[in-house]
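Data availability (excerpt). The following record was deposited with the supplementary files.
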Amino acid sequence: MGKKLCVIGASGLVGSHIVKAALSKGYLVNGTMRDTGDTESVKYLKQIKNSKNLKLFSANMQNPDDLNEPLFGADAVFIASLIPTYFGRDGKPAKDMNFDEGKSEIIKPTVDGCLNILNAAKRNDIQTAIICSSTSSTNPVPPQPFKNEIDHWSDDLEQCNSRKFTSAAKTVMEKEAIKYARENEIRLSILLPTGLFGEALLPKHLEHNPFKWLKSLIEGGEPRHDTIPNNSTSMIHLDDLAKLFIAAYENPNASGRYFGVYGSLHWQDIYAECQKIIPLMKRPKLLTDKPVEATTFDFSRRDSLGVSIRDFPTFLEQTVDWLKSDPFV
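Predicted structure:
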């Protein structure tokens, strides 16, 4: 019988693709979701090829006891449940919170949830963990034009002072996870993605970007921005990202942080690529200032995982073609 992997957050955008990638390689998969009574999500997860090897569990990462059954017997845990939190318990936007509110309602649940999972993994003798975080933890002040994962960290205090609590949660979580893993002899890898293109596996994921704004362009609606922003953003195809997760597990020498992006492009170039494949789309107002240089990355660590990463024009076209096919209808 094959090895068993546990994916925490299996019904999420990234988590579902990790499930898909693991099943395609013959692994048994225990996947958690908030509620297996969510019959629509379960239905689509069970449509993934080889889903006979997928077992789903209800689990809340804030409740440590929920995690024991799905983690039992697993060789590794993939943590894909630490999704960005933009609102507090009462619906207050994170950007409008004061320091104490942001710390208690945005940062603490993310950090506690991650540590609960790692602690449960330790209880179940799991020695390998892979976390999905974000490039938002790799933005030092002042900005670095050429970034690497080892030296470049966001300043979580500066992020909090700027009310970027959602980003600070990732930075603090990573530092606490690295500390916990080091103290408890867990081999920890952290993947750092941003924009996620490709084919969603569950209909609910179409409610989020980039699917939402690309679908609007396809249907003749408004672009994501009124005016082209004078900055850049990074992105990757979901299948390539999932392969990076599996590679980080399979390589016994892999540990630490890895960029999970193809690269970064200026928004001016992103919209130009969009217009090539959606020629009648509405365009945002043109940039009047000189475009800033797009962020560049040292990809030596990412590439050490041995995964071929497709380029932006390729996966943009693949994503648009998929959206045009009316998926899930």
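Summary of structural features: The radius of gyration is 20 Å.
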